[in-house]
From TrEMBL:
<protein>
    <recommendedName>
        <fullName>Prolamin-like domain-containing protein</fullName>
    </recommendedName>
</protein>
<keyword id="KW-0732">Signal</keyword>
<feature type="domain" description="Prolamin-like">
    <location>
        <begin position="32"/>
        <end position="103"/>
    </location>
</feature>
<feature type="signal peptide">
    <location>
        <begin position="1"/>
        <end position="17"/>
    </location>
</feature>
<dbReference type="InterPro" id="IPR008502">
    <property type="entry name" value="Prolamin-like"/>
</dbReference>
<dbReference type="Pfam" id="PF05617">
    <property type="entry name" value="Prolamin_like"/>
</dbReference>
Amino acid sequence: MAKLNFIMLSFVVLVVANTCVPSLAPKKLWDQCVVKISPNCALKIISQVFGDGVVSISCCKELVQEGKECHDTLVKYIADRPSLIGNESKYLQKRDEVWAYCVSVSKAVSPA
């Protein structure tokens, strides 16, 4: 649980730092990805990838709208932290599982 709190805190710090000083992170990461998803959903997704959280259908819709490239980029960015790199393959697998789940539930609830 402490590791998950650290991850969530790191993400919040990243978002806040980029809000105040956008040049601290890669411009593409900020401009194209972070601003496309609500902070609440971002935290839920991070919680599921790096912990035991559950992503809601509404957050899945946001994730799919954000796009796979952004999802992959943001999770990889967090998974590359020194404290997490040892389990990176596990996190990248969970990232892909979350993406597949979100695509399937988004299609299931989308109007035809």
